[in-house]
Amino acid sequence: MKTLRLQLRFLLPLFIAIAGAAYLGSDLLDRLTMRWFTRDLNVRGAAIASALTDTVGDALSERRPARLQALFERATKDERLVAMAVCGQDRNPLRRSPGFPAELSCREVEEIARREDPRTIVAGGPVHLGLHEITLENGQRVSVALMHDVSFADVRTQTTRRYLLAFMAALGLLVALITMVVAQLSWRGWMKGARSLLRGEGLLLPPGDGNTAPELEPLAQDLRERLRDLEDEFRRAQGMETSWSPERLRHLLQTQLRGDQVIVVSNREPYIHDRTPTGITVRRPASGLVTAVEPVMRACSGTWIAHGGGTADRENVDAQDRVAVPPGHPDYQLRRIWLTEEEERGYYYGFANEGLWPLCHVAHVRPVFRESDWLQYQAVNQRFADAVVQEARGEDPVVLVQDYHFALLPAMIRARLPRATILTFWHIPWPNPESFSICPWRREILQGMLGSTILGFHTRFHCKNFMETVDRLLEARIEPEHATITYGGAESLIESYPISIEWPTPQTVASWAPVPQCREAVLQRLQLPPQTRLGVGVDRFDYTKGILERFHAVERLLEKYPEWRGRFVFVQVAAPTRSDLEEYQSFQDRIQRVTQRINRRFGQPGYEPVMLLATHHEHEAVNELFRASDFCAVTSLHDGMNLVCKEFVAARDDERGVLILSRFAGAARELREALIVNPYHVEETADAMHRALLMPEPEQRERMASLRTTVQEHNVYRWAGLMLADAGRLRLRDRIQARVQRHGEA
Ligand code: G6P
Question: TM segments (predicted)?
């Protein structure tokens, strides 16, 4: 109905236009036909007059009026020629035929005949008048006045006009009909496209993927942006409503997950016991994963299964290879898995870190895939799956599988504990389908991961890449609007959960030394003059972290802005990592060489602009360094999230200090108030460092305050909370489905 009304709105003006055209057309037609007839009758009249020349001459010379009368009678037998007269040179009528009106003089005839429209009304009918001069044989010049009946012309014009109107009306109807059909079709297509957009179809896919009609693409674009905004607003509002804390997470576990057992599986353990010359020490590893998951485990209790890699780990477990942690005030159990050297080489160094790690990071290091590593990877995943089954107290525990070391684990657990809720979180980026396809065991990896109930990534972009990869490589049902993949009869939710850190409690913050004191302590320890301006970088010594590019930027800073020479020092903490791998060794050597070169170039006695501290630093030392610095540079070439930047923000309760952040780190999507750089663009990073060193305090405060609000709200309890809330929802759905099925069968 609405469409019809809309179409009428369009058709009405169309009809008016056609009627107008028909009206103007008929008027034009009148004038044209009149001209044709006039010309015709003039030619005809001239021919008749000329044909009558001799007869008129004879009749006049012999003065035999009867002859002329007979001629008139003959001539006016023509149905159109109704009357005629012969006029003398002085325009006096010499003779008239009977129908020629007595009151019509030859002069009047001449006058009318000269007009553009030589028609007039005689005896109630329309006639055409013509006056044609002829020269008789004796040289006398007379005129023949001819009166033609033109009522037939009017009849013809009327008929033509009727045809024209009928034609125009038919044309109008045809045009209207075609318009209505086309409008109806395109309206329906448009409505269908718009409705499917509103249902969210195609919105998760990138623009130009062919799913959305091109004319609707701008609308889709707007909708995508609006949805993103709404989701951010929604999540922000959720976070503000009650901020996420250990208590809230515990409450969620007890209510939505009915206090079910939580088991975490990761390769890296949260506490490492090492034997040192001074006795056994407990070390916290440099791992974003551990930093994030450990507070969650403290809140959830439960069991964490991980590789026991410390030199004194075996001496610190019970008969079931368990140790209660954190040491001193235990909250949960750490179950250690022992790996042989061969297993560690194949599964950890080989397949995970020489294969999957470079495969998933765009850092221009080639992945290496060896059959022997793959076999170890499968075997170790199976060993961890066995451990999960051993540790499970019931048949439906909540298992949190962490990272790329365990891509096969979800399906292995699912095979043994079909009712378990398996949440897999992939802490590193997921590449595009082309890149991933170079893995020889790509299908097996995807099949393994799709054993998960929920598969989490840091960003929506990684979720999209994963879905596209599955689409390319497996026969699975993908529903982008619900973010689900159904494979082998089981459904997995693919969702983004940006990971974060534990926001320091007021008690923790109170235990920190004030910022000026931290500066003093750090400068003293590093033997730097009191006024030195400090930039810091804290990373694992990994080629994905952009340390080389960062150093190049420091070099460019000193080159371009010489005022910083002697006044600025960049301190890089680089925790040794995966040093058994050649790629890492050569990278670390290279960084050492570049450091020396820059220091040779810009150093002076007692001053080295780059300080490379390639040793493990505990959290407290890193925190002090963060508080002492003017800026922190995180220039990863590719990073799932990166938690160092969030820890820097958490450390700055004084709301000073500037964060320089790579746009290729997942965190750049959240921490917009940082100075965002492309780490490959050395000039840009150098300028950002210069800007950071000169940034006025009010601007620093404004940026830092906003960053702190974001990280505080989006803390790690929220990360775990959102994931566990989704798990709770799915468990509830499964329980209801099972109940409905039981009723159905009963
Ligand atoms: C990244 C990975 C973690 C890993 C960490 C440290 O953050 O996502 O899974 O634990 O690096 O690496 P490492 O090999 O020392 O555990």
Answer: 6-25, 163-187
Asked if the domains at 246-496 and 506-714 fall in one CATH topology, the answer is: yes
Which pLDDT band holds residue 235 (cuts at 50, 70, 90)?
Answer: low
Name the closest-CA residue to atom 4, ligand 1.
287
Q: Give the residue, out of 268, 290, 357, 426, with the most ligand 1 atoms within 8 A of its beta carbon, to mutate for a pocket test.
A: 268
Task: Return the percent helix, strand and coil in the chain, to nearest 5.
Answer: 55, 15, 30
Please state which architecture CATH assigns to domain 246-496: 3-Layer(aba) Sandwich (3.40)
Q: Which residues contact 337 (CB under 8 A, 6 or more apart)?
A: 305, 306, 307, 308, 321, 383, 384, 387
- Ligand 1 center to 288 CA (angstroms): 7
Task: Name which CATH class applies to 2-157.
Answer: alpha beta
Q: Are strands 332-337 and 398-402 parallel, antiparallel or unpaired?
A: unpaired
Q: What is the DSSP string of 478-523?
A: EETTTTEEEETTEEEEEEE-----PPPPHHHHHHSPPHHHHHHHHH
Q: Cα separation of 487 and 329, whole Å? A: 43
Residues in a beta bridge with 268:
none
- The whole-chain average pLDDT of the chain stands at 89
State which of 427, 545, 580, 641 you would mutate to test the pocket of ligand 1, scoring each by most atoms of that ligand within 8 A of its C-beta: 427
CA 626 – ligand 1 centroid, Å: 22
Q: Is the minimum distance from the CB of 428 to ligand 1 under 6 angstroms?
A: yes
Listed in sequence order, the residues at least 6 apart from 145 whose beta carbon sits closer than 8 Å to its beta carbon are 84, 85, 86, 87, 93, 100, 106, 109, 129, 130, 131
Dihedral sign for Cα 319, 323, 329, 331, please: negative
For the chain, domain boundaries: 2-157, 201-239, 246-496, 506-714
pLDDT tens digits for range 409-419: 999 999 999 99
Cα 705 to Cα 655: distance, rounded to the nearest angstrom: 6
Distance CA 390, CA 382 (A): 12
> Class of the 506-714 domain?
alpha beta
Give distance in angstroms: CA of 412 to centre of ligand 1. 22
- Summarize pLDDT for 348-394 with one digit per residue, the tens: 999 999 999 999 999 999 999 999 999 999 999 999 999 999 999 99
Q: Is the CB of 288 under 6 A from ligand 1?
A: yes
642 touches 634 (CB < 8 A): yes
Structure tokens at 590: 């290279």
Sign of the CA dihedral with 12 first, then 14, 19, and 20 last:
positive
Q: Is the CB of 309 under 6 A from ligand 1?
A: no
pLDDT of residue 118: 85
Distance separating alpha carbons of residues 192 and 622, to the nearest angstrom: 57
Of all atoms in ligand 1, which is nearest to the CA of residue 577?
Answer: 15
Task: Pick from 403, 404, 499 the residue to mutate for probing ligand 1's pocket: most ligand atoms within 8 Å of its CB.
Answer: 403
In the DSSP assignment, the letter for residue 355 is: I
**Which atom of ligand 1 is the closest one to the Cα of 540?**
6
Helix 682-694 with 547-560: angle, nearest 10 deg:
60
287 lines ligand 1 (CB under 6 A): yes
Q: Is the Cβ–Cβ distance between 502 and 715 less than 8 Å? A: yes
Check if the beta carbon of residue 682 is closer than 8 Å to that of residue 715.
no
Residue 736, token pair as written in the block: 């209801």
CA of 671 to the centre of ligand 1 (A): 22
pTM of the full structure: 0.70
**Ligand 1 touching residue 578 (CB < 6 A):** yes
Check if 268 has its Cβ closer than 6 Å to any atom of ligand 1.
yes
